[in-house]
Amino acid sequence: MYDFNQKPDLNITPLVDIMLVLLAILMVTAPVIEFEEPINLPKGSKSQQVQSFKKIDILITKNRIVSLNKKKIEINNFPDSFLLFVNGKDKNTPVHIRADKSLMYDDIIYVLKSVKEAGFYKVALVTDG
Predict the structure, then answer these.
(1) Which one-letter DSSP state was computed for residue 46?
(2) Which domain holds residue 74?
(3) pLDDT tens digit string along 82-124?
(4) CATH at residue 120
């Protein structure tokens, strides 16, 4: 007969064994799993050759003197001088603008606006960095 005063004996050894095996399998397979996100990349053109353009350098000093490819111009005369300088040049030519950091923001925007109005859209503001 069964003795009701006796406490039942729980055997958790098989449960622990199974959990350790599952943990070991998870530790082995987790580093192998890779997540892949599908993305659409643009197609490159291998047939197109890189064209070398001569860039236009514009340097604005703190005295508001603009150097256009080493030719010095007053900032107030810059739009007309720039139009004469780029007459007949390709509009895809990159333009690099360097300016002293103590200049007013309006002076830099004035030069940038003049370059954009001349039809050049590949304009970069060069900084130290």
Answers:
(1) S
(2) 56-126
(3) 999 888 888 888 888 888 888 888 988 999 999 999 998 888 8
(4) 3.30.420.270
